[in-house]
Design a protein that fits this description.
It contains 5 helices and 4 strands. By secondary structure, the chain is mainly α. The strands form 2 sheets. The chain has a two-stranded antiparallel ribbon. Helix 1 packs across helix 4 and helix 2 packs across helix 4.
């Protein structure tokens, strides 16, 4: 099943830097795969997603979930102070070293 799912996933999803700057989209569309997985992750039912994107099928949703599961887990964004406590963001939007 794993090999079949992998082949099926890449039949429906592709990357092209001329389409949506190279993010994963469904073949023949400009619908980002991440939009679908985010909708499902937020609790949207599959029927609601399919109604919102009529050009997609159940196979697209299955491929999107499998594709997302194959990616490494994203880490949450960190604030500037967490990454380098010696730097601060000023009110003008400029990053400067913190002064003692």
């Amino acid at each position: 099943m794993g090999t079949e799912l992998n082949e099926h996933r890449y039949d429906l999803i592709h990357f092209d830097r001329d389409v949506m700057c190279g993010i994963a989209v469904f073949v023949g569309t400009r619908i980002p795969v991440e939009n679908i997985t985010a909708s499902l992750a937020c609790g949207m039912r599959e029927a609601e997603v399919l109604a919102a994107y009529p050009q997609l099928t159940q196979a697209h949703l299955t491929a999107a979930v499998a594709f997302a599961a194959s990616l490494p887990e994203r880490q949450p964004a960190r604030r500037l102070g967490e990454t380098n406590p010696t730097w601060v963001l000023t009110t003008s939007g400029v990053v400067r070293p913190a002064t003692p």
